[in-house]
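Lab meeting, item 3. Inverse folding demo.
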């Protein structure tokens, strides 16, 4: 399941099918998830929608050719945040997470231009920040970012990956050379790239055990 980015207020599933050909070529079903964008929905509501989408696939995936016992989540930027929030509520059902250039601590967004549509306060930011939530039992994860990104994105990813490991979760973090915040996700399932190789490897390892 792929959750798109756009700071919770842009893009949709229509721009999110780029990884489908590579996934299908390797026998992996691919679902791009839509959610109501801010300000039409609050961040709390967006998280609930994404969790509901996951729950539907977990309960009904077999009817559309998806194995509900082998579900993985992935996302870029705001989508990585949403994928992490989904994984937090279903750690035993989510078999792995691929989190690319994510936002895991929302507090720094309060009062910024990005926050105009989100209308965050300290309480809302805290309950929607994966970095501050209990991470014990989080599924295996790949946490990565592009070489050509701001230090803030790099720091959030490194910190989240280390916090996952401190909580006993298996998490690999790495930087993708030559990629920026917007094009790094295009490598998601491409076997010719580092991210694609690692993603496909994680799925194979988890589904063959």
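The presenter then showed the designed sequence:
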């Amino acid at each position: 399941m792929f959750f798109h980015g756009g700071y919770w207020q842009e893009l949709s599933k229509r721009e999110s099918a780029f990884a489908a050909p590579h996934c299908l070529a390797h026998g992996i079903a691919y679902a791009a998830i839509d959610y109501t964008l801010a300000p039409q929905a609050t961040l709390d509501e967006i998280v609930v929608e994404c969790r509901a989408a996951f729950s539907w696939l977990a309960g009904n995936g077999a009817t559309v050719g998806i194995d509900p016992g082998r579900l993985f989540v992935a996302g870029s930027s705001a989508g990585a945040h949403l994928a992490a929030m989904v994984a937090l509520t279903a750690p035993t059902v989510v078999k792995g997470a691929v989190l690319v250039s994510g936002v895991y601590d929302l507090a720094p967004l309060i009062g910024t231009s990005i926050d105009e549509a989100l209308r965050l306060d300290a309480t809302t930011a805290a309950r929607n920040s994966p970095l501050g939530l209990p991470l014990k039992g989080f599924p295996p994860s790949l946490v990565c970012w592009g070489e050509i990104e701001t230090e803030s994105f790099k720091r959030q990813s490194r910190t989240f990956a280390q916090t996952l490991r401190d909580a006993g979760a298996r998490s690999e973090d790495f930087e993708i050379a030559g990629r920026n915040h917007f094009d790094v996700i295009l490598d998601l399932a491409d076997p010719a790239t580092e991210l694609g190789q690692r993603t496909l490897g994680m799925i194979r390892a988890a589904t063959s055990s």
